[in-house]
Structures are given as C-alpha cells and as structure tokens.
Amino acid sequence: MPIIIVIQGAEINIKPWHILLGGLKEGTTRIPWLNREPYAYWKGNPAVAETRQDLMKCNVYENQDWNARLFAQHWFRESQEGFNKSDLPNIRCTLKVLLGQSVKNTFCHVTLPLYVYDYMFHLLNSYAKLFRYKPSISANATELCVESMVCGAEGSVKKFMVESLVKVPANTDPCTMPAPFDPPTLYATLQRKESSIQQVESWEKSYWDNQTITS
C-alpha cells in the first residue's frame, strides 16, 4: 500500500526536504550517539488520540522516571515563538530514542524519501494502470501553473513553496523499483535489523552499568 509522506509543514516551520536534509546531516555530527541524552523523546498533541494520552502517563514525575521526556505541543505559544522549540535538526539529533520516528535511532535516522518525485512518478503511473477508461480533460477544467499556486500563498507557506520549486528537469531517469524480496533476502534484512537493535541495546546497557558503578 503506498504511503504518502508530507515533505514540509509550513504551519509548524518544517522546511522543504532538501533544506531540512542538510540540517539533519549537520545535526548528526554534533553529538555522537553514545553521548546523547539517554531518554525516549516525544512531542505532539496528546488530545487527538487515546493512545497518546496513555503515552503521557509514562512521563517523568516526582517519584517516577522511566527515562522518557514527553511534551504536549502548545500550538498557540509555539506559533507565537516561530516553532523554535520544534526545530528538527536541533532537537531530534540530541536524544537516543525518538518515539514515533523509529524504534531505535542511530546518528538521527531519516524517514523522509530523498527521491520523492521518483516515488510520485511510480505511484501515479501505477494508479493510472488501474483505469478502465481513457481520461480526458474537462471543458471546464482550469489549468494550474506555478504562478497561480504561489501568488495566493503568504508567509512561510509561500517562502517554502518557492524554495522547493524544481527549476530544471532531472538529468537522470526515474529510479527503478526493486523487486519483492525472496525469502532468503527478506530473512537477511530482518536479521540485520535485529542485529542493529541488539547493538544499540548493548550500548544502552553498557551506559547504565557504568552509571551504576560510578554512583
């Protein structure tokens, strides 16, 4: 099933992908993974789902600390401050585990697609193959161009749209989608994932063992 991923969110100051990627890469070099804060981090709106409200119960309290730092996003206050406390490169590359991003994050795992236009190319072409008729342009259709889409935008929305504008066509063909995994390849992939998780857990155990010895 195709997954649609939002590449930018002007309303919360998430910049266009190619700009955000540079910030994330730079952010991974600031603090080595082993030196990052040993907390699980999450920030969002807990009011939208019961599971999120349950998650907030795992926050740090006076007599309880499960090494989780969970924050409710105060939208009005954040918007007044320009969402500076939600800056992805500065926040998400300083902690070891990011809830809702990936189970274990090593040097800030990026889940946004680099080849998003290739992805959309394959998605739309696959969707078109399902048609049982030949599409035609309606006589009442209105053609959209870059100018008509940008002119009505304001503030960060307009700024990010201009920054993400593709000015020239790519000099490469669209990427080729890989074939489905055969059983041995799938098994090897799952084994590598499990090995990576075990490695991170080993680092965590070593860290806390050293903390106990020191104290």
From TrEMBL:
* Domain Glycosyl transferase CAP10: start-end pairs: 1-134
Q: Which residues form a coiled coil?
A: none
Domain of life of the organism encoding this protein:
Eukaryota
Tell me which positions the record assigns to the signal sequence: none
Q: What is this protein called?
A: Glycosyl transferase CAP10 domain-containing protein
